[in-house]
Amino acid sequence: MASSRRFKLLLILLAIVSLASFSPALPALSSPHRLHSNPKGGDRRFWIADDKFWKDGEPFQIIGGDLHYFRVVPQYWKDRLLRAKALGLNTIQTYVPWNLHEPSPEKWVFEGMADIESFLNIAQELGFLVMLRAGPYICAEWDLGGFPAWLLGIEPALELRSSDPAFLQLVDRWWGILLPKILPLLYSHGGPIIMVQVENEFGSYGDDQPYLRHLVALARRYLGTVDFSTGEDPWPIFQLQKKYNLPGKSPPLTAEFYTGWLTHWGEKIAVTDANSTAAALQKILSLNASAVLYMAHGGTNFGFFSGANTGENEKDYKADLTSYDYDAPIKESGDVQNLKFKALRNVIQKYSRGSLPPFPTNNEIARYGPVKVSKVASLFQVLHALCDPIQVIETDQPVSMESIGQMYGFLLYTSEYPEKESGSILSIPKVHDRAQVFIRCSLADNERSLIYIGTIERWSNREFAVPFIKCSSNVSLFILVENLGRLNYGPYLYDRKGLLSAVILDGTILHRWRLYPVSFNKLSSILRSNPIMQVADPQNVDMTEEPRFYQGSFFIDHKNHVKDTYISFRGWTKGIAFVNNFNIGRFWPLMGPQCTLYVPAPILQHGENIVVILELHSPHPELMLNLVDNHGLLMLIKN
Ligand SMILES: *[C@@H]1O[C@H](CO)[C@@H](O)[C@H](O)[C@H]1NC(C)=O
Ligand SMILES: *[C@@H]1O[C@H](CO)[C@@H](O)[C@H](O)[C@H]1NC(C)=O
Ligand SMILES: *[C@@H]1O[C@H](CO)[C@@H](O)[C@H](O)[C@H]1NC(C)=O
């Protein structure tokens, strides 16, 4: 998925490797019987010929939908897949985000939400085929288009999506782990995977042919005999799909049929009409063409994984919402009682053999009501605990987050300068993405003396005035920089975070910086042991714009009452939230349009449930959260 809707339908097909067991049009591809000689596979065959998909000897119409395992808690994979089944889909399409599976070099993660094999097995148990979009670049409105952020910390800088040998070596290592896991899950081996897509939207920018050929060769090496749907030379597909495909190799397929659209912070929520979406699908299916709904179910960008897009230039930055509802027929919480689901299901029913599974009921959503939170600590007060002292970096000039291994969230930059006689002008030409600036006398050691002087945002960067403060010492400068999500598409993909330029005060560059990487790994124990908690006085709310942690809890009195809910952040400003230590994402009601965050039941428990919020600016005046039973709030803002 990318921002330019128009070119997509053509480009998306670009590098689909179908796992055909043989291919009459491509006699050069050896060993037609190799793949289906596998005893487990039996006579299972999926291939492309005569401009059709063929499955086990019969023409096959793919009626699929995207549903990404990494946007749904694993306990709900089956629930969401069953809903996709009831929509009438026969195929599930998913990306594979490299950054989820290799969060740091050679640290392989395939558990929990990253347990792709379990997801694919459940899909198969429910009778789905699978189209796997293996990347390594995926776009997907996902941080850095699925690339691990540590790629941006490597020097000399890698050229992403190219045949740069240093980059290809890392791709080889990743696919060397991934593809052997995929091999037994291929259709011809008894698994659900009928096609593997290589790269994504290549050609809409970028033009490195050897890179694509390298990926195809890798797929062949690990997955065996494969039939590359664009022929031996993948390149011409970018000019025109059908014309350049080998004869008979172009089954009509709309690989991303948009059921809705993405929304960035600050935009109106994207909503598309159910009837016209259904009518468009009807048109495609009536031509015996295949279609894959993007999305069947969008889900949620939990944690720090949401991506971002740019407009005209690098500064024209737009971060994606936490919610990836996408106005898809299966809503973020699994809701199917909506017009779009009904309309699409009616169309799909006409092109399906037999009747579809019965219409599912919605999951119940609980309204747990208001939750009072209390101030626990200021971020600066607990900095020493959030930030391992050995992680503190001293540099002459600010450096990027990636270059010191702080991939997500926040990095605090501090420096100091001699006291001035009057106010000053501060400028930071390059901030990715948002910086809150504070000063205080360097000898004053308490947070009360911190003065907030303003926020610099990447999209509206300007210099601003620093007020005069009377100090008998130097003045300390604190710049808390937030990474709002790396670009996932376009020419500025190489999107490092942090302060990417010098910091200039009255025309002079500041030197000697200390960088504090903020980690939330031990958050709960830090907040528990922090003495401020006991003295915190909720009646005495300090409204200064200082990043602070707030904590509250709510009780669920019976295990049958553990249900999905939404937290409404109306009245709060901007931050991130954790429920029982699970990062449910960013809230930013001031920017909108999303004002509630989805809380899936599996992260809740019978008994006490703890909510911790990092609010970067001013809190709700009464320190209240509200646990509500609908996302309707999402739709009401900015309409
Ligand atoms: C969509 O179709 C349904 C069923 O045909 C109809 O009742 C409804 O009025 C239509 N809505 C719009 C907005 O066209
Ligand atoms: C679609 O397939 C059916 C059954 O094979 C055939 O009768 C019909 O003519 C096809 N329609 C088109 C538009 O190709
Ligand atoms: C005050 O800041 C300047 C500039 O960073 C530095 O050279 C000097 O050592 C600092 N003074 C003290 C007392 O820390």
Automatic annotation (TrEMBL):
Superkingdom to which the source organism belongs: Eukaryota
Q: Which PANTHER family match?
A: BETA-GALACTOSIDASE RELATED (PTHR23421)
Catalytic positions are E201, E256
What residues does the Beta-galactosidase galactose-binding domain cover? 547-609
Residues in domain Beta-galactosidase 1-like first all-beta?
398-518
Q: Start and end of every Glycoside hydrolase 35 catalytic domain? A: 52-219, 222-350
Q: What protein family does this chain belong to?
A: Belongs to the glycosyl hydrolase 35 family.
According to UniProt, the name of this protein is: Beta-galactosidase
Assigned keywords, A-Z:
Glycoprotein, Glycosidase, Hydrolase, Signal
For the protein in the UniProt heading, the enzyme class is: hydrolase
- Whether Cytoplasm counts among this entry's keywords is no
Kindly indicate where the leader peptide sits in this chain: 1-25
Indicate whether Oxidoreductase appears among the record's keywords.
no
Organism source for this protein? Dioscorea zingiberensis
EC number(s) stated in the UniProt entry for this protein: 3.2.1.23
Q: Which GO terms describe its molecular function?
A: beta-galactosidase activity
Question: Quick one: a GO biological-process term for this protein?
Answer: carbohydrate metabolic process
Q: Which reaction does it catalyse?
A: Hydrolysis of terminal non-reducing beta-D-galactose residues in beta-D-galactosides
